[in-house]
Amino acid sequence: MADPDSLGFEHMGLDPRLLQAVTDLGWSRPTLIQEKAIPLALEGKDLLARARTGSGKTAAYAIPMLQLLLHRKASRADGEARRGGRDPVSRVEPPAAAEPAAAGLPGAAGGGRS
């Protein structure tokens, strides 16, 4: 029998897509490790947990991580809509890092045998 005081997935503040995925997997109630770990992880707390194989540790880790990724994606999309464009993208590569790689390639500028 389920503990009436236990916290269900629907009461954890999860994204509707995660709730749908949990339902699609046939999970009606979180396991003990999920019930205890997910809310703490959603608060940004560090966790160290030990539980038996098959107890739901992977989901207890993955669900909050997916929640964070979905939230960040939504936040980024909201920011793009307000700015009317995409986030600026840049790639910085120090010149010294590129030179040794090119030095050993035949025909590359500054290196190799011709």
Q: How does this structure look, described?
A:
With 114 residues, the protein is an all-alpha fold. It has a domain at 9-85: Rossmann fold (3-Layer(aba) Sandwich). The chain contains four helices and no strands. The chain has helices at residues 16-24, 32-42, 57-83, 95-103. Helix 2 runs parallel beside helix 3. The N and C termini lie far apart (77 Å).
Compose a concise summary of this entry.
Its EC number is 3.6.4.13. This protein is mainly alpha-helical. Helix content is about 50%, strand content about 0%.
Shape designation: globular
What helical percentage do the residues reach?
40-55%
Give the class-level CATH name of the domain at 9-85.
Alpha Beta
CATH architecture of the domain at 9-85: 3-Layer(aba) Sandwich
**Structural class, judged by helices and strands?**
mainly alpha
Order of helices and strands: HHHH
Biggest sheet layout: none
Domain DEAD-box RNA helicase Q: 7-35
Biased composition (Low complexity): 93-106
EC number: 3.6.4.13
GO molecular function, one term: RNA helicase activity
